[in-house]
Amino acid sequence: MLRIIGGSFKGRLIKAPEGAGTRPTSSRVREAAFDILSPGIAGARFLDLYAGSGAVGIEALSRGASFSVFVESDGRAASLLDDNIRKLGISSSAGVLRMTAEKALHELAGESPGFDVVFMDPPYRNDQIEKILVLLSVPGFLAKGALVIIEHATKKKPGITGCFREIKSYKYGDSSLLLAGKAGEP
């Protein structure tokens, strides 16, 4: 079980998949991510790639995001995520896509308005980050001033590609957060 750490659902518990197939974002890293995002999360459209339990996207909704899309390819994790959303009563503010991140980005590419925040926490052995960043670079996919937060193994910092530039990196033991934005935007 994971605990929501802030906002309207603070203290509520959600289920997390068991086993080595998923690695939930720790409460310390979630809290740090939302400390970074706090000024811009209210009303934001949030995309949670590699969502697992959905803790990050649910935390975004708890703190005032207007809508959160969760992308999870593992059927067992996606079922738990559906249960978490239903039990919290946030189905009208959430969408779950049971597919790979790459396929979801192709499917979401024409949606408007664009996403304000993208959080991705791929398996640490996954080398898809650069490919995902290129897909996020499609014009209109992200809102002006959008942020991308990448959780990654501290020992393996991902390269920034597409139209992105690194803003800042934060270390939390074995996990790190890399904050990126579109080049040429504040």
Descriptive key words:
single chain; two-stranded antiparallel ribbon; 7-stranded mixed sheet; 5 helices; 186 residues; 26% helix; Rossmann fold; globular; alpha/beta; 28% strand
What report would you give on this structure?
The protein is 26% helix and 28% strand. By secondary structure, it is an alpha/beta fold. It has a single domain (2-18, 26-182), classed as Vaccinia Virus protein VP39 (Rossmann fold, 3-Layer(aba) Sandwich), CATH 3.40.50. The strands form two sheets. It has a seven-stranded mixed beta sheet with strand order 5-4-3-6-7-9-8, with helices on both faces. A two-stranded antiparallel ribbon has the order 1-2. It starts with a strand and ends with a strand.
CATH C-level class? Alpha Beta
The CATH architecture assignment turns out to be: 3-Layer(aba) Sandwich
- Main sheet summary: 7 strands, mixed
Indicate the overall shape: globular
Structural class: alpha/beta
Number of strands: 9
- The separation of the N and C termini measures 37 Å
Give the amount of beta strand, in percent. Answer: 25-35%
